[in-house]
Predict the 3D structure of the following.
Amino acid sequence: MTSPRFPEQQLTDLDGRVAVVTGGSRGMGKEMVKAFARCGADVVIASRKIENCEALAAEVTAETGRKALPVACHVGDWGQCDALTDTVYGEFGRCDILVNNAGMSPLYGSLEEVSEALYQKVMQVNLQGPFRLSATFGSRMAIGDGGAIINISSTAASSASPQEAAYGAAKAGVQSLTRSFAREYAPKVRVNCIQPGPFRTDIADAWSTEMIDNLERSVPLGIGEAHQVVGAALYLASDASAYTTGAVIKIDGGAVYPCA
């Protein structure tokens, strides 16, 4: 494929590429899937509920004409991560963009009430999955035409909170993995991370009115909308970020948490 001459053109040119998005059937994942397809990529929509993936795949193909492959995958399962990789390469023979977006942050009463099973589930989905998928996809990208891996973290990685202790620890691990994989698969594979703040996705349905009011007051730009992840995602997925790797890009509406 031939990239456009100018960086501003590269930003929205994904023609001929294949993008895989985990947690891709809803929220920020859905918005990234649709944006990649609008920019010319074929897309793989991976999440646990195949019916949601199928519905979005049909919508994407109807709107853009791009191929959209729905795949059921629970990223907390090591074997299902391997199966996703094999499915993508079996169908397309390549992967140019991987977005490790799937995540979970369940509510709990107190830290003492967090069970071993809940703790392990949070770690498996938020940290183990990105590790395994970055390894299986990244290694193939590195011996092929290269590519871009985008990890989705959270400001919970930098802003310690008892309400998100395990989740925040897992997301801090994701940011560390980003730097490790960036070194391992350079120069052909770029590995970067987006650190979102509060976004109004289906996860926000569990937020209390008090929490929402507090966020709207304390975050200069308020609560984000899912589509507002697209700019950062396109930058990191495209050749516009050809000299960017190991980076954590904070998109949090102006919250003061550092990208630690």
Notes: The mean pLDDT is 93. DSSP finds eight helices and nine strands in the chain. The beta strands are 18-22, 42-47, 68-72, 97-100, 147-152, 189-196, 199-200, 224-225, 248-251.
